[in-house]
């Protein structure tokens, strides 16, 4: 895939970039390694000062970088501005809380004595250079939720961003540089995916984090495993959205629309499979379908647009294949199911609701990365849980119920990294984020996220 800005609303190539050569990659690796040897010695106050300055700049830049993101990957510009501001908020959160999250831990006096020590504690020390392989769908947020905690912990970062968001990737390097971070603390590598293995195998790279597809995660994990390097993987999701009879159906249906089409439907944590109890199925389906049908599809730079284009032409083709396979095998399109007639050019796809889904259809097992929802009818809680777990993924889940017993059961039995009740999945710096099964391993955000790239060091002194 060429490194280029291609406007998904028109298909026009706006700017292309040359990939870094071997000498340039080596120079950046050497710079990162040297930067870590000094940056690791800085204190939390200095790191916080720099990160807060980056947050200030990002807030000032939000309107411009939002337009850049929208032009590169097609998200509605209002959502792009919100993403930039969320990143600034996360930076401030880690700047304030890192000292507490990474404070030395002290065992009880009794345990210290029992270990034969006069004193002992646990210290969190940075690992070193962390390689981040990031996707295009949240081109700022995916990076910042790694970079903010990693930098506050004393690590330095190398970013290999998706090839279709190069201007956003370069902006991030410039942002941290303008904020005053020492040279080499955060660098963007404009390289293709073929360069990742050699970079990850370099002994100066201590660890890696990847958000992206399952095949990409497998590839990075295999190399890191061979090199015995720590990784965090956040991969795909096919999140269930379960609606039980006690739910507020009007609010559940309204929220479901947003949960499905956020980011033009291109979100790992977007609700994708809507599992509805038969007692409220018809009412929910009618409201949900009407809400999806009423969305405005069009120019993502228009403030009134709800759904913009898919980020890539191949992404739309993949989505169309899943829908066409389902329709051939007996699914019913309650709305959508094709490219929107009202929009010319670009990689648009109409918001779609498919019913009568069976296990014979690819869409039952595969992730739909676009504004396409699958609708299921179930007869009881047991069937809802079984269907929700009938997926290779386990990123997050959504449940609508006012029944306390049902809450306990879903919280206990859903196979996912998160269970969100009476609302939609969202990420926040205070809450750990990640999945199970083929959705990956490790956690981002919260104290769990900042400690992922730390050397958890036992310090023991003889009695």
UniProtKB/TrEMBL annotation:
* Listed name of the protein: NADP-dependent succinic semialdehyde dehydrogenase
Q: Which residues form the Aldehyde dehydrogenase domain?
A: 3-459
The GO molecular function terms of this record are: aldehyde dehydrogenase [NAD(P)+] activity; succinate-semialdehyde dehydrogenase (NAD+) activity
Q: Kindly list any coiled-coil regions of this protein.
A: none
Q: Which keywords annotate this record?
A: NADP, Oxidoreductase
Pfam families in the cross-refs:
Aldedh (PF00171)
Question: In which organism is this protein found?
Answer: Streptomyces liangshanensis
Record's keyword annotation contains Oxidoreductase: yes
NCBIfam families, alphabetized:
PRK09406.1
Q: Fetch the InterPro entries from UniProt.
A: Ald_DH/histidinol_DH, Ald_DH_C, Ald_DH_CS_CYS, Ald_DH_N, Aldehyde_DH_dom, ALDH_GabD1-like, GABD/Sad-like
Family statement drawn from the similarity comment of this UniProt entry: Belongs to the aldehyde dehydrogenase family.
- Signal peptide location: none
């Amino acid at each position: 895939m060429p490194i280029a800005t291609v406007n998904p609303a028109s298909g026009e190539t706006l700017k292309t970039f040359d990939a870094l050569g071997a000498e340039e990659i080596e120079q950046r690796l050497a710079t990162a390694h040297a930067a870590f040897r000094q940056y690791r010695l800085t204190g939390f106050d200095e790191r916080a000062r720099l990160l807060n300055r980056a947050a200030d700049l990002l807030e000032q830049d939000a309107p411009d970088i939002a337009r850049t993101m929208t032009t590169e990957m097609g998200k509605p510009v209002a959502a792009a501005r919100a993403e930039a501001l969320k990143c600034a908020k996360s930076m401030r959160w880690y700047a304030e809380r890192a000292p507490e999250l990474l404070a030395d831990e002290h065992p009880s006096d009794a345990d210290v004595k029992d270990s034969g020590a006069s004193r002992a504690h646990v210290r969190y020390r940075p690992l070193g250079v962390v390689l981040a392989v990031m996707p295009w769908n949240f081109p700022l947020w995916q990076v910042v939720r790694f970079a903010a905690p990693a930098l506050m912990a004393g690590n330095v970062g190398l970013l290999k961003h998706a090839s279709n968001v190069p201007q956003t990737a370069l902006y991030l390097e410039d942002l941290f540089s303008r904020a005053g971070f020492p040279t080499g603390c955060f660098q963007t590598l404009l390289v293709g995916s073929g360069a990742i293995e050699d970079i990850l195998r370099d002994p100066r790279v201590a660890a890696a984090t990847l958000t992206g597809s399952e095949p990409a995660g497998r590839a990075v994990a295999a190399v890191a495993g061979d090199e015995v390097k720590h990784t965090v993987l956040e991969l795909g999701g096919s999140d269930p959205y379960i609606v039980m009879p006690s739910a507020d159906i009007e609010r559940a249906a309204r929220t479901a629309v947003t949960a499905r089409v956020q980011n033009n439907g291109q979100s790992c944590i977007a609700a994708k499979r809507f599992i509805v109890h038969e007692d409220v199925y018809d009412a929910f389906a009618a409201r949900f379908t009407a809400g999806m049908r009423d969305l405005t599809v069009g120019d993502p730079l228009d403030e009134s647009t709800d759904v913009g284009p898919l980020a890539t032409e191949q992404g739309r083709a993949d989505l169309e294949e899943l829908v066409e396979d389902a329709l051939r095998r007996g699914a019913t399109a309650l709305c959508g199911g094709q490219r929107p007639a009202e929009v010319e050019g670009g990689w648009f796809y109409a918001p779609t609701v498919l019913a009568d889904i069976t296990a014979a259809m690819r869409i039952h097992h595969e992730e739909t990365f676009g504004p396409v929802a699958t609708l299921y009818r179930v007869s009881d809680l047991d069937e809802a849980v079984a269907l929700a777990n009938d997926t290779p993924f386990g990123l997050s889940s959504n449940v609508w119920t006012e029944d306390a017993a049902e809450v306990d059961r879903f919280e206990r039995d859903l196979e996912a990294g998160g269970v969100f009740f009476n609302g939609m999945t969202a990420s926040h710096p205070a809450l750990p984020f990640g999945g199970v099964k083929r959705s990956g391993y490790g956690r981002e955000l919260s104290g769990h996220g900042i400690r992922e790239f730390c050397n958890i060091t036992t310090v023991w002194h003889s009695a």
